[in-house]
Amino acid sequence: MAPLCYGMTLCILCIPPVPANLKPALRQYKPFVFFAVPLIINKMLDDTIGEFIRSKSGAAKLADHVHNPDFCEALRTIFMNAFGGNLGLMITGGAAMPEQLERLFLEQLKVPFVTGYGMTECTPTITLGHKETYVMKECGEPVPEGIELKIDSPDPRHVAGEVMVRGHVVFTGYYKNPEATRAVLSEDGWFRTGDLGTIDEMGRVFLVGRSKSMILGTNGQNIFPEEIEVVLNQLPYVQESLIVSRGGRLTALIVPNQNLLAEQNIDATTLGQIMDTNLSDLNKKIPAYSAVGSYEILFDPFAKTPKGSIKRFMYR
């Protein structure tokens, strides 16, 4: 509704949003604002400039992007032209943005990009970033109309707590399910989102995970698997991952990038060696209490919701 309220033309793709379908539609409509979940944006990136980013020379130039502005600008032009050449802002939500992709957009290619956060129960937008002040990992500030937001934590800036929302955009309850309604709505109208996060002095919200997916460590620490997965997904040949608890031990379920494996003729033995190294590197980058003890390699993509979130309950 928001685009229509601002007098914009709203175009909705009614066929699978794969690059083969998206690219001709983008060329035709030349959107100024593009909304999509990170999975779709990642597919478009891979289809347009993926081979340049994955090459050794390309990766090296991106890592030293300050001294390679022409290379970065060339990649930016290719990517932006794939969206019709008129793109002023890319908005993503519905799932966590991979840190590597976020850094590529913000620091290396300078793609105009922000993240939003919302739920159906809040019709749906709760927060939205501003491209002028956007920082890594934020999911935006509370929308100014109709939303109050607080973090249920003794120290909301530094200690994650449940995100709670109140306002006229918040629903009044689940249809014919008073028990479920009472579980999430307080008498004074605060809705418990089930998401955990912090909020900074600028009012920017940073999500760390879902309360239902939080794992209690052996020494009582709260472990947020999403934070580990963000790091793991940046390591070589990892397409996507899921952290689960198996017998009190953290295990990484890893889906490798099979296109890359085929391109480089990586066999099963070499893949195992790569993932052994990845596990070691992962544990150097995360707190000791959240160290991952083992991994399993899966060759089928994780089952996902329509918005692209992994159905975690299927892998416990």
TrEMBL record:
Gene Ontology CC entries for this record: membrane
SUPFAM superfamilies (UniProt xref): Acetyl-CoA synthetase-like (SSF56801)
Gene3D superfamilies linked: 3.30.300.30, N-terminal domain of ligase-like
Keyword annotations of the record: ATP-binding, Ligase, Nucleotide-binding
KW Iron-sulfur (keyword) present: no
Domain of life according to the entry: Bacteria
GO molecular function annotations of the record: ATP binding; long-chain fatty acid-CoA ligase activity
UniProt domain AMP-dependent synthetase/ligase: residue ranges: 1-175
Catalytic activity line of the entry: a long-chain fatty acid + ATP + CoA = a long-chain fatty acyl-CoA + AMP + diphosphate
Pfam family, one: AMP-binding_C_3
PANTHER family in the cross-refs: AMP-BINDING DOMAIN-CONTAINING PROTEIN-RELATED, LONG-CHAIN-FATTY-ACID--COA LIGASE
Name of the protein in its database record: Long-chain-fatty-acid--CoA ligase
